[in-house]
Amino acid sequence: MTHSNTLTLFLPDRQQMQSLGICLGQILTPGSILMLEGDLGSGKTTLVQSIGEGLGITDTIASPTFALIHEYPEGRIPLYHLDLYRLEPLEVNELHLETYWEGIEVPPGIVAIEWPDRLLDWPDNYLHLLLTYVDEGREITFTPYGQINWASICNNLQLSGLVC
Q1: 3-state helix, strand, coil in the chain (%, to 5)
Q2: In what helix (H) or strand (E) does residue 22 lie, and over which residues does it extend?
Q3: Helix or strand or coil: residue 69?
């Protein structure tokens, strides 16, 4: 199925992936939810690390595969990095992750979720990023769902030189 607002970027190397993440960290607003889908090693954690850099987070951002959730409150806005790889959907449901995107128990920030296919209940508004291997780089396909300020995101990506 094709989504009319889909944007696909080719990133030939790690530096371009980092540039994209830094840009996203600078432009995303509190309440932004990123659903990161892709094979192992496709760059999901690298992208989140770079988003943290764009937010001004100085702590090391590591994959939360075993911790499940890492919280980074010290940037421009908080970053919540979730990795659901090791969990079954019913286990994920018991974590009540909606508290992150609803801002119930934590201040609103950017919520980056790796392996979102494990979620039973998805938020209404999110940006889906599909990371795939292509030729000698990565391809990232962005698809907005719900009330996302997509035009502003695209404009900022274009201004940063990431979209031609």
Answers
A1: 30, 25, 45
A2: helix 14-27
A3: strand
Give the CA-trace dihedral at 3, 42, 111, 56, to 10 degrees: -120
The phi and psi torsions of 92 (rounded to 5 degrees) equal -60, -40
Domains and CATH numbers, the chain: 10-159 (3.40.50.300)
User: Count of alpha carbons within 13 Å of 103, Cβ hemisphere only?
Assistant: 10
Yes or no: say if 69 and 82 are a contact pair by the CB < 8 Å rule. Answer: yes
pTM: 0.89
Pairwise CA distance, residues 11 & 7, whole Å: 13
* Nearest alpha carbon to residue 142 among 150, 96, 97: 150
- C-alpha gyration radius of the chain: 15
Instruction: Specify whether the CB–CB gap between 69 and 80 falls below 8 A.
Output: yes
DSSP string, 36-57: EEE-TTSSHHHHHHHHHHHHT-
Distance CA 36, CA 130 (A): 6
65 vs 11, higher pLDDT: 11
Paired tokens of 88: 């079954």
pLDDT digits (tens, 9 = 90+) for 64-92: 766 788 899 999 999 999 988 877 777 77
